[in-house]
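During the reporting period the student researcher (J.K.) took over the structure-prediction task from the postdoctoral fellow and processed the backlog of single-chain submissions. One of the processed entries is reproduced below for the supervisory committee.
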Amino acid sequence: MTTTHTQVEEILSKHGISYAVTYSGESAEKENGKEWKHDRWNVTIGCRTVFSVPFKTGTGLRKMGKSGRMAPQFPKAADVLYCLLMDADALDHSFSDWCSCYGYDEDSRKAERIYFECCENGKNVRNCFSREVIQELLEALQDF
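J.K. obtained the following structure tokens:
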């Protein structure tokens, strides 16, 4: 485990924040005209409030298991929290600015849906974590 992963786990522990992951199975969906196979997870994070989010990892992240078959690897807290904190950044931008920052088309319904999903994740993060915890996590994840 890298130093960043350890730092994030220490921050969660220090602040009494729980982190749990449940495997939801393998799935496939079309993305940009290609099929993307991935493992689906349900992540539950708790502190002042508790929230759950779906999380996906590509099958390329699987590792050889004891059975000799490729096995999904549970996402670490740093992996999920990095994504959630990046999503939370949408709360500080208008849709237009967010599209410009992340290369989305302002006229896209898909981009609008993604923006609002990021905002919802951001609201959950800000409701769950204090500013102090968010700042600690951002510092730990700055080079992630």
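The committee noted the following: The chain has five helices and five strands.
J.K. will present the remaining backlog at the next meeting.
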